[in-house]
Every structure is written in structure tokens, then in C-alpha cells.
Amino acid sequence: MRKAMFTCALALTAVFGGTTVQAQEKTNFYPLVLLGERLEVCSSMAWQRCNDTDWIDRDAMRSDRYLNLSNVYLEPLLDIKNWGPLRSEVRDDVKEAIELLRNRVNQDVISERVFLEEFTRRATRYLYDQLSEADWNMIIDHLEMRVPTDVEFGVNLMATKEQVQLDFLRDIVSQAKQVSEGETPHVLVVTAAQRDSLDLVNYYLQTFAGAGADASWLPLDKAVLAAREDNACEVLDEYRPGEMGAYRRAAVHADLHVRQVAFCDAGDALTQIRNADAIYFADGNPDLLRPLLVTPFNEPNELAVGIAERIAEEQLIVAAAGMSANVMTSRAMVTGGSSAAALREGVHATRAPGLGCDKDDTCPRNLREDSATYHPMGGAGLFRFGTLDTNMGEQGNHGRLLRVAATNRVPLAVGIDAATALLVNLRSGDFKVTGERGVFFAAGAQQNELAVASTFHYLMAGSNGSFAGTDLTEVSFAEDAQVVQVEPTTNFISSRGLYDSLRLLCRDRETVEVKWQQFTMTLIGGEGTETALAGAECQVQNARIGMQYAPAERF
């Protein structure tokens, strides 16, 4: 154990200190790419993201999940082991609802979209509202039919609506080209953060291939770890319900399951990492991804050390999207929850409860489905500068990020908006913001029972700077920015109300106070604060923010 810990420390020092490894100088090199949301381009399964859908061949391309409502699929779903003795009434209601739906559509096989539309109609809507997210996933998994081997996951980059998604894809591939020594860059795709780690494998492989890279899949996830530990790879599918919350994946994704079983038996993740120019961690659940990179003793494991060593040698790019980006930190790791819950009740050092956990009685004691959670010992350890969070403006995650930072005395916390990427050079600390929105930086967060406050900066895409100690230095504001095409709001708890209110600081207001339901936010500028407009958005440096839970009875 002492040798493993020493090796890990040496590798991370090489990354963070930047003095023990000599590498060829690269230009505009940022080996860590953090995306504020999932990477999603135009595909046959996500036609809403396409400008044009005429190219989709529904006979040759996978365009939907198909469910079978016959008893052959229904009976295993209704097994008492899936529901437990205390939920037999819910199980019976599910049986009745599916039989009613089957009679209504008068066919056994329907698409998942039609199933959802029918299930949420008046006659069965009451039941849908009683089901947790875990319940619904279990129902879909049991009814889902095998993905045919003669159809492909169609991807069309050129038809993608959102140009920013293509820009992020090209950012990752262009960084990887700097380490591939003139060869086509090889991207290793990791889907372990996703509940069904097999479902989108081919989508990501085709996406990166379309962007000019070779791509392969690392078939490692939490279920594989557990099956390996028990020397039971031959029954890998039996581990997925408990470890991943996924059912019958061997029947649905037969070919990928066979590959994963083979990897479970004899696969070598370190060899795949050594052969990669970039690793892409797909968006998902941080609690599923973290065990791949951290030991039960909260030390970066062999895999994390291998990644750190290759980054230290400037021979690897690491890209992580959405909540998987949170796992890259060495500081306290945000795992879920809402800002409202964080401000109201604080944050909890535990796994994130599932959505609707109150409906199936799986919420941990004293927690609700929106309780804000974190892991105090951090994640993979690559991003040493602070705690990370994503989807900031879109979900109003500033409150939970500030709470986690204050609770753990993290000097700096970094929150990345959707449609935005933060590119970081881990050796120099230099960073740049790309995309369409911005990045929120909170320094020195402090709190009491009902409030949290910090110094903060907000930089739009096109800005750059450097991490220095516990703050930023050499900041250059963006000169322009995309216009945000949404109505302004004062909702800073679950939407972009912070940024809409921030515009007032760029209009020479020194103090802005905003109320939303039972919460109050105060923004303070004044002496020492720098502001700059980028399009219609306000960028600031060295302003202050306070958020407070202020229920009416406390006024």
C-alpha cells in the first residue's frame, strides 16, 4: 500500500508541480478539457438536435428503443424480487397499466416514445407520478428488446443544430493531435458514468470517428469492478442491477456485453490508456465513475496514476463532460442536488439520492431527492485548483457549489455553464474559456447556518487567465459573446437569474439584491471590482456574492 501511495504521489506531483517531467513544448496546449454539459450531436437517436432528418434511414439505423409488452417480457419485470414485499400494490398497478396500454394500442411491440406518451395519458398518469426514476428505468429495461445487429447508430455531424457542440468535439480532437505525433489521434471513450454503460458506446465511437479520430471503448464500469472482485465475470449481467441500476443489458446489447465480459476476464485498462492520445469521459453519475479512479481508501488508483503519468509527459488529453467533469477534481466533489436544498439544509457527504427516492423509500435517512451531496475526499485528482461543478447557469447550481466549497474550506470553486468548456494547462495553470456562455469562479467561500458568501469572478467564452494559488491572475476578459436566447429571470436558484442580475453591476450599480421565493441573493461591486460587457453579458472580477435562505417567519 505504501509503495502504491508513493507512486501515486510522484505521478500527481509530476502533473501539478510541472518540474519533474520534461516534454516537448506545445503551443496553445490544454490537456484537460472540461465541458459544462453532455456532448450531443445530431444522430438517428437524437433527431431533435438535427437541422435535417432526411438522411436518417429508419430501416438501417437505430432510431428508437423498442419495447415488447407481451407476457414473455412482462413476467420477469413483475418478479417480487424487483419490487419487494412492501410494494406489491405498486407492482400490481404496473401490471394492470401495461396490460391496459397493450390493449389500447392493440400491439405487443411499440417504441419507447409511444410507450411514454401512452403511459402518461389520463388513465395511467396517476401511476407514472408515483414511480421513482429507478422504477421507470427498471420497467423500460425489462421491456426493451434486443438492439438488432444489422442496424447502426447513425451520426451526422454536419446536420448538428448547435455549432458549439461541434466546436467542443474539434477542441478535443485538435488537442489530441498535438500528442499523436502526426498520426490520426486515438480517443478512448469511457461510458462508466452512465447507468446503462453499453447504450451509447457506438454513438460516441462514431461521433469521434466523424471528427477525424480513431476511437475505441474502455469496457470498464462499476459492475465489472464488482464482478472481477468476486471472480464472477461470467455472470456480469447479474451485477448490473445492484451496481448500476441497469437490468437485462446482456439481452439488449448482446455484442457489447460479450466484449465487456471478455474485458472483465482479461482486459487491461492501463494498456488501453497507454495507447490512447485522449480519454473522453461521457456525462453521467459521479458516484458511478469515481470508483474507477479512486480506491476504497480514497487514494487515486492505478488507472488514475496511469492517466496522471501520461498527462505529466504531455502525451494524453483528458476530456470530461457534464457531471463527469466534477470527478476530475482533487478537492471535495459535487455529486448532485439542488441549490435550494443546499441553502436550506446544507450539504451532505454521501451518495446522491435518486430522483423520486421518496416514492420507493430508498432515500437515505434525513435526505430527499434534491438534497445536495458531495464526496469530501475528491475524485481523480487531476484538477488541483478547486472544486468543480457544471450546468451552472442553466440549473442555478451556484448555491450548491458555494455550500460544498464553504463546508470543506475549499479556497476556490469553479462552475462551468452549459454550452461552455474550460480548457486547462495543468502544468502552468493557464486556462481559457470557449463556447457560448461562461465560467463562474468563487474564492474563499464562507457560510453560516442559512447563508453563504464569497468573492467571485464570471468570465465569458473568449476570456483567459491563469490559476495562481487560491485565485486567478492575468485575467483577460472576452470582448464579445453569444446573445443568450432566453427570457431574463430573477430565479437564481434553478435558472440563470444570477447572470441576468449581474448585468446591473455593469451599469454602475454597486449593490444588487434579488429575491426568489424564500431565498435572497446579494451582489456587491464597488472598489476593486472590474467589469466588462461581452455582448449583452456582464463579466466581473473581484465582486462579492451572498445567498441566503430567508423563510418568511424569519423576517
Short structural description:
The protein has 555 residues and is an alpha+beta fold.
Structural class: alpha+beta
Approximate helicity band: 25-40%
Strand order of the largest sheet: 5-4-6-7-1-12-13-16-17
Percent of residues in β-strands = 15-25%
**Distance linking N and C termini:** 55 Å
Number of strands: 21
Morphology: globular
Computed Rg:
24 Å
Largest sheet: 9 strands, mixed
Low-confidence stretches: 1-10, 18-23
Mean pLDDT: 93
The helix tally amounts to 21
Word description of this protein:
By secondary structure, this protein is an alpha+beta fold. The chain contains 21 helices and 21 strands. The chain is globular, with a radius of gyration of 24 Å. The model is unreliable at 1-10 and 18-23 (pLDDT under 50). It comes from Pseudidiomarina insulisalsae.
Please render the helix and strand layout as text.
Elements lengths: L1 H16 L14 E4 L30 E3 L2 H7 L2 H4 L4 H18 L3 E3 H8 L2 H9 L2 H11 L19 H15 L8 E5 L10 H10 L3 E4 L4 H8 L10 H5 L4 H4 L1 H13 L2 H6 L3 E4 L4 H4 L12 H11 L4 E5 L1 H4 L6 E4 L2 H7 L27 E3 L11 E4 L1 H4 L2 H10 L4 E5 L3 E5 L5 E6 L2 E10 L3 E10 L3 E5 L2 E6 L20 H6 L8 E6 L2 E6 L5 E5 L2 E13 L6
Parallel strand pairs: 1-7, 4-5, 4-6, 6-7, 10-11
Antiparallel strand pairs: 1-12, 2-3, 8-9, 11-14, 12-13, 13-16, 14-15, 15-21, 16-17, 18-19, 19-21, 20-21
Helix pairs in contact: 1-16, 2-7, 10-13, 18-20
